[in-house]
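Final report, closing paragraph on structural work. Over the funding period we assembled a curated collection of sequence-structure pairs, and we close with a single example.
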Amino acid sequence: GGPGMHMQANFRQGMGFGGPGFGGHHFERMLEEVDATPEQEDKLEAIMDKLHDDVRPIMRGFRDTRDDVAKLLGAATIDREAAEKLRAERIAAVDEASRKLTSALLDAAEVLTAEQRAELVEHFEDRGWHRRW
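Its predicted structure, as stored:
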């Protein structure tokens, strides 16, 4: 699949960037687990909506990666410069998406209280999610 394809699949499934716990039904359950107030829910949903809007175009950029690689490999001569350019572009896109995710996670953490964050970490640990990081 290439860089970012796993992230693209998670995002496309409506689970949010980063897998379960960051969107859809999992997101709603997380809010219930930490007893989020309606104000916190609104803020967190706005953060997730912004993340989705910011990252979706980046992930769409990966759609043609396989075709781009096939063209490079199928050409009469191997263009190493073009291959390096494509690789660098994809790595830069993954890095940009990662920065946006990190920023959104920190923004979300600031919405929660220290106690709620501790509950969330415990929730993740109880479900073995630490292995996904």
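The chain is about 70% helix and 0% strand. Residues 51 and 100 are 7 Å apart (CA to CA). We thank the funder for supporting this effort.
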